[in-house]
Amino acid sequence: MASALAARLYWPGWVAATALTGIVAGFMLGHALILARFVDWLLMTGTPAPGLEYAAFRATAGRGGLTAFYAVCGLQVIAVVVFLGLALASGRARGAAALAAAAGALWVVAHYASGFGALEATVVRATSAVPPDIAASFLRLNVPIHFFHSATLVTALGALLTVPRSASRRKD
Questions:
Q1: How does DSSP classify residue 161?
Q2: pLDDT (tens digit per residue) in 5-51
Q3: Integer angstrom CA distances of residue 14 from 20, 92, 118, 155
Q4: How far lies 77's CA from each of 16, 19, 25, 87, 107, in Å?
Q5: Does the pLDDT of residue 88 top 60, yes or no?
Q6: pLDDT tens digits, 46-80
Q7: Could you give the count of Cα atoms lying within 13 Å of 26 in the half-sphere of its Cβ?
Q8: CA-CA distances (angstroms) from residue 159 to 14, 21, 43, 67, 156?
Q9: pTM of the predicted model, to two decimals?
């Protein structure tokens, strides 16, 4: 019964995991190319309180933008893990699903386990000058870590995109 339910939910799960992973990969690439560089610029230009400037910048984008961003990112991680469960239960594309789940969740682990999440929060919430050691660490990691996030998400997306081809080769 569980495998029948998994088989029934398999393709909707794949669509959700693939769509959300593609969207979050786009978020991270955009972040690496634009937003991360904006925050770097605030720090490098000697802006006394980058957090205040960033807060003003974020407010112009409308309320709830950051909440929506976090919600989509959280749903992406949940979707790839659920898809892995569906793949395992239905016996389909387990390798691709495992790679997608591992890579699709790795970016969050790397963000916080590296300490960058706390460092980023310190910088964007600053109400006075950011201490030079924190600013230097942030400037050194900001763009590379967001490109790493993009790369892991693109890897997850690539794995997910192989699923229809592997499923078409399998005779059920």
A1: H
A2: 888 999 999 999 999 999 999 999 999 999 888 888 888 887 667 76
A3: 10, 11, 32, 15
A4: 11, 12, 12, 15, 9
A5: yes
A6: 766 776 777 676 667 666 777 888 999 999 999 99
A7: 8
A8: 11, 11, 37, 28, 5
A9: 0.86
**What's the confidence (pLDDT) of residue 103?**
97
Helix/strand/coil for 92: coil
Q: What gap in Å lies between CA 61 and CA 92, rounded to an integer?
A: 42
Residues 125/37/67/54 CA torsion (nearest 10 deg): 40
The two structure tokens encoding residue 10:
């398999």
Which residues 6+ apart lie within 8 Å of 82 measured at CB? 13, 16, 17
Has residue 101 got a pLDDT over 90?
A: yes
Closest CA to 115 of 137, 133, 132: 137
Whether 38 contacts 140, CB under 8 Å: no
DSSP 32: I
For 78, residues 6+ apart whose C-beta sits below 8 A from its C-beta are none
Candidate ranges 1-5, 119-123, 151-155; pick with highest mean pLDDT? 151-155
